[in-house]
Amino acid sequence: MNIGILSRNASLYSTARLVQAGRRRNHNVTVVDYLRAYMEITSTRPEVILGGSRLMYDAVIPRVGASHTFYGTSVVRQFEMMGTLTANGSVAIEQSRDKLHSMQLLAHAGIPMPVTGFAHNIQDIDLLLEAVGGPPVVIKLLEGTQGLGVVLAETRKAAESVIGAFRQLDANILVQEYIEESDGADTRVIVVGGEAVAAMRRIAPVGEFRSNLHRGATAVPVELTEEERVLAVSATRVMGLGVAGVDLLQADRGPVVLEVNSSPGLEGIETTTGVDVADRIIQWLEVVAGVENGS
C-alpha cells in the first residue's frame, strides 16, 4: 500500500515509528505536513496537493495536533472525499477533540464517566458545584491538552475563584467530579480496530493529581480486567475511531472513562509495555484495506 502519515514533524517518535512499521511490512510510507498541503475542492475531482504534486494514497494515518484540528481535519475530510482509507475519520477526530461533545456522546451511549457539569453563567457556580457532588472538583478548559488547563479545586472558594477567572477570560470550561479513590493514577488503553492492544497504569508524582507522562508521571504495564477492556473498546466505538487512546479512572463504582484521544502518543505505551503498537496499526490497516503484507 501507499500510506501517508499526516504529521507536522517526521522526527516525532510516534510518526517515525509508524513510518518504520509500515516500511518494515513493505509498504510505501511518506510523511505529509498537512499544514503545507492545500486542497482543490471540486465536485468531480477533489485533490490534496503538496508542492505542486497531487497526493494519492491507499490509506492515511492522521496525527493531527490539537492546535491545528480545524485545518488538519479538513485535509482528512478531503482524502475521504477522494475515497482514501483513513485510520481515523474527520468527524471522529473533531468529536474527540471537543471535550463537551465527546462527553455528551459517551453519556448518551451509557458509558460510565465522572459526573460532569457545564455552564456559561458564573451566577450558577453554586448550583453547578452541587450538581457534580461539590468540592473537591476538577475544572478543565475545553481546549486543554496533556494536562494543561486542568485544575483541582479542593474547596468551594477555590472552585469559585478558578471558575470565575476562566469565565472572565470567556473560556469554556467543564466542572467534573473528582475521583479521589483513583489516588492520582489512571489507565491508558490503546485500542486499534476494536481491540485493546496495550495498556499502562500512569501514576502522578507526589503532590500532583494529573497523571500525564508529560507532567512527570511514571508508568507501569497493566493487565486489563474484562470490564476495563470492554469499556475502552466501547468508548472508542462510540467516538467512531479506528485508533484511540482511552483514559480510565478506577472509581469505587467501577472504571469510568475520563477521555478518548484520537492521536495517542506511542512512545510511553511502547516503552512501558513492549508492545509494537505501530505495527498493530499497520496490520489493522492491511486488514481493513483487504491487502496482504507489502501489497
Q: Can you put this structure into words, describing what you see?
A:
It is a single chain. The longest helix has 14 residues, at 226-239. By secondary structure, this protein is of the alpha+beta class. It has nine helices and 16 strands. Helix 2 runs antiparallel to helix 3 (90-97). The chain starts with a strand and ends in a 6-residue tail after the last helix. The strands form four sheets. A five-stranded antiparallel sheet has the order 14-13-12-15-16, sandwiched between helices. Strand 3 (38-40) and strand 4 (47-50) form a beta hairpin. It is globular.
Give a brief description.
This protein is α+β, with helices and mostly antiparallel strands and 295 residues long.
Entry keywords:
295 residues; alpha+beta; Rossmann fold; Dna Ligase, domain 1; D-amino Acid Aminotransferase, Chain A, domain 1; 3 domains; five-stranded antiparallel sheet; four-stranded parallel sheet; 9 helices; 27% strand; globular
How do the SSEs run, as a string of H and E?
A: EHEEEEEHEHHEHEEHEEEEHEEHH
CATH superfamily of the largest domain: ATP-grasp fold, B domain
Low-pLDDT windows of residues: none
Residue-averaged pLDDT, rounded? 88
* Helical fraction: 25-40%
Report the total helices.
9
Main beta sheet: 5 strands, antiparallel
> Strand order, biggest sheet?
14-13-12-15-16
